[in-house]
């Protein structure tokens, strides 16, 4: 039975964790700033009163650290929410947002813009990556759809085939990227370097809007777990719902990947762990996974940015893979993968 109080409790707890992660992250860096000063600087930026903060610290928090931190939270929120939807859609706890090639499509758009800037004279990789991700999702769906039906198994296989093809395209573009090779490789690793408020403004509205709409379909997600035939008998328009879920998850994923590159394991591990904790009901699982994903990526990017535990400063995708892969292997070897 769904209990709103349980959702509220988890949401409050995870929101508090996210606030602590944001403040703690903003306090860390080459210039250490105490959390109270960080909090005052954030309140000043939000227009919630005027608090005395040294001008240098205000600039560091508001213009340097906070855009990157909020972008990390946005991307983590997007990938974890999309991963939750994909795992429910495919009824497979090993599914993630890139399973139908969205990340590969974004990589093609971004690497093409980096390697051949004259062909994509936009001045930013965000839009080419976003468009590449959506075109790939549409292509996979079109290939898998026949006679008005889209079998999940066919969709999965089409996604695998398109990913393989796009992998070859990406390799070709990287080989011919010349002096832009390093930038292309770093983008594919997943990074949040040089994040700006413009990046946040690009990703945040799409992510929040997409997840809010997905939240309206959590009942249908729950029913689809019973199987498509049972869902049809229970009054769900299966094909329409599948198209909407796939489209929305792809848009949310595209928004995250476009600004941060290919950040792995967030959309795989976070929804799986939250499902073990809160259960499979998407009315609770979707919002809690999104909030947990936001906190996870903020913490991971902080480690990547400050070189935690004596490690060198690296792209955040390396940190998420380093943490996510062993942890997921631990789940596989020490307890059963949670059945959907």
Automatic annotation (TrEMBL):
Q: Where are the transmembrane segments?
A: 69-90, 99-119, 125-143, 155-176, 196-217, 243-270, 282-300, 307-332
Instruction: State where it is primarily located.
Output: membrane
Q: According to its UniProt record, where is this protein located?
A: Cell membrane
Q: Name any GO cellular component annotation.
A: plasma membrane
| The entry's keywords | Cell membrane, Membrane, Transmembrane, Transmembrane helix, Transport
Enumerate the Pfam families for this protein.
FecCD
What is the topology of this protein in the membrane according to its UniProt annotation?
Multi-pass membrane protein
* Gene Ontology molecular function: transmembrane transporter activity
Entry-linked InterPro entries:
ABC_BtuC-like, ABC_transptr_permease_BtuC
In its keyword annotation, does this UniProt entry include rRNA-binding?
Answer: no
Q: Kindly indicate whether the keyword Transmembrane belongs to this entry.
A: yes
Identify its protein family.
Belongs to the binding-protein-dependent transport system permease family. FecCD subfamily.
Kindly state the subunit structure of this protein: The complex is composed of two ATP-binding proteins (BtuD), two transmembrane proteins (BtuC) and a solute-binding protein (BtuF).
Its function? Answer: Required for corrinoid utilization. Probably part of the ABC transporter complex BtuCDF involved in cobalamin (vitamin B12) import. Probably involved in the translocation of the substrate across the membrane.
Write the protein's name. Answer: Cobalamin import system permease protein BtuC
Q: Which organism is it from?
A: Natronococcus jeotgali DSM 18795
Q: Which gene encodes it?
A: btuC
